[in-house]
């Protein structure tokens, strides 16, 4: 019997790529999205990529009455919860909005799931719960901390999940701690589409390569790293999407949950990424050295071994693939904007 999965935030960057991976794996998918941070034409683009109709409900996970109707009207077997605010910088300016959207949103969703007897959940967490002083490579047993309201909200969500599972073993929850998701679907039809100035490195580099921004500021070149710039574990968004499919399968198989890192285990510096992007796009990427950004760690990269053991997860794409697919998406969306 085909499993039906509700994707909250399913029109977003990671949600849309996971939609494709789930359809490819034979799941039926239902999308709930308020389109606060996703383009309204993503569902139609998903239909082109998957060749299948996309079922979308416009709404918010904070709307309990809507959630109750969704579970009553659709025979849902599991939920993947992407719908959350995710900008570190914005969270510093709007902490209460982040607590409301990310924490109250999760609680409302889990209450509606419980009332509908749906207790299989995959939760989108982040390596940001390790704070900036973690031992490397980062293992899931590393002490948790936070350096900003976004990371704080993710940590509280993980604690809420832990307490819920402890109180009711009928719950099976996969907590996935993403490292740095980048890249786009090879078709170039879906990808990262940040509104305004990108916070993150890869989408900023993409806009500089496309000539939409004049120069990249490299936040510090005096870190204790091989070339002095920040080192991160960049993971292709399609690898990340596959990890969600494997997490769902593990919940179904084991009847219990897991907390795993989703990363490649390889760290690349800012200058590594700039050089790789220049090769992948055949474009110059002007940059200048700027002061360090508050809260940044020098290095962060995963020990990915637990995800391999528990889920069978192993990242397939390399940094060039991440840059190349990002560039194809950048060109397509630039042509669409001109068109
Ligand atoms: C990467 C490196 C910067 C921009 C954050 C969140 C994390 C996740 C991914 C949500 C760092 C440097 C960046 C720029 C730069 N988000 N940089 N110039 O900070 O590792 O992670 O985004 O889940 O939770 O914490 O990613 O891409 O912002 O930075 O030099 O214009 O690039 O200093 O070394 P980060 P990032």
TrEMBL record:
It comes from the Bacteria. The keyword NAD applies. Residues 5-263 form the NAD-dependent epimerase/dehydratase domain. InterPro entries: Epimerase_deHydtase, NAD(P)-bd_dom_sf, UDP_G4E. Pathway: Carbohydrate metabolism; galactose metabolism. Pfam families: Epimerase. Its cofactor is NAD(+). Keywords: Carbohydrate metabolism, Galactose metabolism, Isomerase, NAD. Its EC number is 5.1.3.2. Belongs to the NAD(P)-dependent epimerase/dehydratase family. This is UDP-glucose 4-epimerase. The lineage of its organism: Bacteria, Pseudomonadati, Pseudomonadota, Alphaproteobacteria, Rhodobacterales.
């Amino acid at each position: 019997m085909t499993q039906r999965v509700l994707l909250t935030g399913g029109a977003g960057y990671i949600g849309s790529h996971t939609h494709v991976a789930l359809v490819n794996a034979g799941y039926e998918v239902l999308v709930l999205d308020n389109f606060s941070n996703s383009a309204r034409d993503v569902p139609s683009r998903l239909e082109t990529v998957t060749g299948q109709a996309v079922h979308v409900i416009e709404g918010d996970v904070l709307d309990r009455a809507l959630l109750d109707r969704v579970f009553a009207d659709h025979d849902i077997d599991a939920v993947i919860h992407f719908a959350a605010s995710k900008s570190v910088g914005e969270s510093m300016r709007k902490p209460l909005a982040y607590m409301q959207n990310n924490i109250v949103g999760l609680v409302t969703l889990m209450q509606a799931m419980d009332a509908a007897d749906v207790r299989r959940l995959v939760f989108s967490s982040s390596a940001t719960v390790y704070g900036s002083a973690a031992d490397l490579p980062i293992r899931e047993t590393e002490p948790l901390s936070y350096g900003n309201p976004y990371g704080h909200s993710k940590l509280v969500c993980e604690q809420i999940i832990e307490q819920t599972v402890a109180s009711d073993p009928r719950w099976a929850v996969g907590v996935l701690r993403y490292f740095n998701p980048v890249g786009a679907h090879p078709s170039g039809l879906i990808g990262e589409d940040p509104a305004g100035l990108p916070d993150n490195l890869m989408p900023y580099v993409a806009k500089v390569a496309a000539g939409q921004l004049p120069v990249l500021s490299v936040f510090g070149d005096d870190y204790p790293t091989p070339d002095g710039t920040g080192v991160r574990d960049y993971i292709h968004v399609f690898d990340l999407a596959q990890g969600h499919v494997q997490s769902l399968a593990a919940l179904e198989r084991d009847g219990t949950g897991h907390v795993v890192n989703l990363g490649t285990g390889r760290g690349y510096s800012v200058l590594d990424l700039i050089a790789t992007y220049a090769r992948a796009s055949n474009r110059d990427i002007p940059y200048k050295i700027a002061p360090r950004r508050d809260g940044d760690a020098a290095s962060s990269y995963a020990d990915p071994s637990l995800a391999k053991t528990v889920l069978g997860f192993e990242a397939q794409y390399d940094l060039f693939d991440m840059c190349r697919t990002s560039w194809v998406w950048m060109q397509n969306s630039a042509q669409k904007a001109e068109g």
